[in-house]
Structure formats: C-alpha cells, structure tokens
C-alpha cells in the first residue's frame, strides 16, 4: 500500500503554506483539502478534536505530530490549572478543579481503550503524563475530589505504566509528594 498524505488547510494560512512548502521541498505527494473555518469538516474535527485548528497533516489515516501536541498540551495545562486549584478558594477553586478534570478527560479521550497513548508502545505522551501520577494523591487531597471517579481510564493507564521498571524506579513516592505540598504552597505564597 502506498503512503497516503492528506493536508487539511486554509489557503491564506501561513502555517498551512509552510507545511505545503515543506512537503513540496521533500517531494512528498499529498492531497490538499481546503477547509472552511466556519463550517469545519468531520475529518478536521476527528483529526484535531481539541483545538479544531488548521493545518492538519494526515499520514495513512492518522494525524502527524500528535505525540508532540499531547506532550505540549500536558506541559502547558497541568501546572497552571493545579496552581489555580490550590491557590484559589471557593468558586475560583471549584473552577480550577473543574478545568483540571476536563483537561484529564480530554487526555483520557485520546487514550481511549489503548494500552498506552501510542497503542501497544509506551512512548513520549506516556512519559509526559506519567510524571504527574505521583502528584495525583495531592491533587485529590487538596482539591477534594477523586481522579479515579472522574477518569478511571487514566488511573488504569497509570497503574499499567507503574508496572514498567523505568517508571516504578523513577517516580517519587506519592505520600512524600503529598506531605511536601503545604511547604511548597507556603514558599510559593499560595497559603
């Protein structure tokens, strides 16, 4: 089977132009599909469900650069939301908690029923997210909620990851992390 490359784009987009130029320079044959920004196609929504933005490069039915996207999504979302969840009170704290849970649900929907984010292969996105697992108990304690109740597939995935020697050896003990939080909050001026 020949490689099928599809580029979803919008004609004046500088990002789309960059992608077209790169494909042309590498002499990669591709099917360009113009998109309507105000009436997004089912293919666009399927291939870029979070941001729903262009361009999207699809190789043999799968969007490219997804691992980098999800790693970046995790790195940008988690710290800010956690700070809001811990640093705020009342309604603002509830909003932070809700945003954190929604972020996890978004990541969980990407995981789906796969063993790891890359399918059967443990990879970049797994590594990006599993580092936060040792913080989950603290998130739950100080946010007063249950991640497992909200996102059971994320917890099942994390438990699978913990069976990997590299993960089990590297993650700090979650109890120690939870005990550290009051000190961190004080040093950060949150409490």
UniProtKB/TrEMBL annotation:
MF term (GO), any: glutathione transferase activity
Origin organism lineage: Eukaryota, Viridiplantae, Streptophyta, Embryophyta, Tracheophyta
Catalytic activity, reaction form: RX + glutathione = an S-substituted glutathione + a halide anion + H(+)
Enzyme class label: transferase
The GST C-terminal domain, residue ranges: 60-180
Localization per Swiss-Prot or TrEMBL: Cytoplasm, Cytosol
GO biological process: glutathione metabolic process; toxin catabolic process
EC numbers for this chain: 2.5.1.18
Short name of one Pfam family: GST_C_2
Residue stretches making up the GST N-terminal domain: 3-82
A cellular component annotation (GO) from this entry: cytosol
Role, per record: Is involved in the conjugation of reduced glutathione to a wide number of exogenous and endogenous hydrophobic electrophiles.
Entry-linked PROSITE patterns: GST_CTER, GST_NTER
Keywords: Cytoplasm, Detoxification, Transferase
Predominant place of localization: cytoplasm
Recorded family membership: Belongs to the GST superfamily. Tau family.
Protein's name according to its UniProt entry: Glutathione S-transferase
